[in-house]
Amino acid sequence: MSSYLLRAEDCLLMTVDIQQKLFAAMEEGSRETFLKNSIILLETARVFEMPILISEQYPKGLGPTIDEIGAHVTGMPRYEKLHFSLYRDPVINTRVNSLAKKTVIVTGIEAHVCVFQTVMDLLMAGYRVIVAEDAVCSRRDRDRQTALAEMGRAGAAVYSTEMTAFMLLEKAGTEQFKKLAPLFR
């Protein structure tokens, strides 16, 4: 059962391609929830001092990380990539491996392309992967649902954002809980 639990000291957060043109192409009805949950995960990672990797797929064409996310990652490097899988980019691969974390929590766009390929590569490399099902999106919900099912079948844990955050929090009354509690209203 311990393989289902999360410990902040074992985790890093991967934020995949939450960029202007990609975000604008997502279904309007899913954008608000996706954005809120991505911010919750970013803030949770910050409060627990977990490493955060932010990727941007071909930013010349797809634009930079959206401002709403950028405000939560000020001063953090953004990794430009052309590979759909973050883990296939040599610079990102080296960074992930150098962090020596066992668990990667993933949020981002698009669930069935860059998120999916990243998750598959991380699983094949021996990482434990948590996919925040309500913090990944695709242009079509059917693609998102298919990707979530296949990532789960391949061995990724598919959790909600709140499941992930509260598992890291472990209990109420802590300084971390007090900082994050307003995000869950």
Describe the structure.
The relative contact order is 0.18. This protein has one domain: Rossmann fold (3-Layer(aba) Sandwich). It has 185 residues and is of the alpha/beta class. Strands 3-2-1-4-5-6 form a 6-stranded parallel sheet. It contains 9 helices and 6 strands. Helix 7 (141-154) links the parallel strand 5 (128-137) and strand 6.
Topology, element by element:
Blueprint: E1 11-16, H1 20-25, H2 28-47, E2 52-57, H3 59-62, H4 67-70, E3 78-81, H5 90-99, E4 103-109, H6 111-124, E5 128-137, H7 141-154, E6 157-159, H8 161-169, H9 175-180
Parallel strand pairs: 1-2, 1-4, 2-3, 4-5, 5-6
Helix pairs in contact: 2-8, 6-7
> Cα distance, first to last residue?
30 Å
Rg calculated over all Cα atoms: 15 Å
**Biggest sheet overview:** 6 strands, parallel
Strand order of the largest sheet: 3-2-1-4-5-6
Number of domains: 1
Regions with little confidence, pLDDT below 50 for 5+ residues: none
Structural class: alpha/beta
Short description:
The protein has helices at residues 20-25, 28-47, 59-62, 67-70, 90-99, 111-124, 141-154, 161-169, 175-180; strands spanning 11-16, 52-57, 78-81, 103-109, 128-137, 157-159. The chain is an alpha/beta fold and 185 residues long.
